[in-house]
Amino acid sequence: MATPNTQYNVAKSDSLPVKIAAYQRRRMFDHFLSATGISPDDTLLDVGATSERTYEASNYVEAWYPHKAKITALGIDDASFLEEEYPGVRFVKGDGRELPFQDGEFDVVHSSAVLEHVGSFDQQVTFIAECARVAAKSVYLTTPNRWFPIEFHTVLPLVHWLPKSTFRSLMRKTGRGFFAEESNLNLMGAADLRRAAAAALGPRGYRFKIATADLAGWPSNLLLVAHRDPVQSRQ
Fold first, then answer.
1. Per-residue three-class SS string for 32-99
2. Are residues 208 and 225 in contact, defined by beta-carbon separation less than 8 angstroms?
């Protein structure tokens, strides 16, 4: 059986889609730094570290963030090699929907392209709420925009705009059963993300906004930026 994250690797590692994804991730990483205002003293939790090592920028936070000793990387499959590859980084195996950490244990929580893989809308709310629970200052989450013309995981055009039940039926009929399961792929549009964020973050004293990363003038990725309100958090 394939390890969890290898199921998502449809495109070849040297292909144009992978190169474009790496370009977009560099842009989102730069936005993450500026939008959260993370400082060298802040502790950082990266939720969704992967064992995948062939794609450029798979674990871009661990690769690009300079303060390695401040990073804790968490993932569902074994990415413990990150501790050797990036000395100072700590790896913890775990599920983002039930984080094995105390409330406010990290200053900043980051997660890239995980939210669409955690299951139903309710599970997505749980995932966001857990990231918010363990963050003392800020949360930064990215997810592909359902309304971008290309579906990034299958590299197919437009089919993901169909009703979700129709899309999943098509995935099964074309031998892509893995992507037919809601537990493996549940794409969100901006309205979905805004609704999930409001449900997850409102009770925890966060203010949030949704930004986008554009590709060829079209929003390709949704960026959830949330900051804990210091007044509400003390109440």
1. HHHHHCCCCCCCEEEECCCCCCCCCCCCHHHHHCCCHHHEEEEECCCCCHHHHHCCCCEEEECECCEC
2. yes
Q: Which amino acid is at 100?
A: P
Instruction: Check if the beta carbon of residue 106 is closer than 8 Å to that of residue 136.
Output: yes
* Tens-digit pLDDT profile for residues 116-167: 999 999 999 999 999 999 999 999 999 999 999 999 999 999 999 999 999 9
> What's the DSSP call for residue 3?
-
Burial class of residue 173 in the structure, from the number of CB atoms within 10 Å of its CB (0-12 exposed, 13-18 middle, 19+ buried): exposed
Mention every residue, 6+ apart, whose C-beta is less than 8 A from residue 210: 190, 193, 194, 197, 222, 223, 224, 225
Nearest Cα neighbor of 33 from 123, 140, 105 is 140
Q: Which residues of the chain have pLDDT under 50?
A: 1-2, 4, 233-235
Retrieve residue 210's tokens: 């949704």
| Structural domains of the chain in order of their starting residue, each with its CATH number | 4-233 (3.40.50.150)
Burial class (CB in 10 A: 0-12, 13-18, 19+), 4: middle
The number of C-alpha atoms within 13 Å of 31 and in the hemisphere containing its C-beta is 21
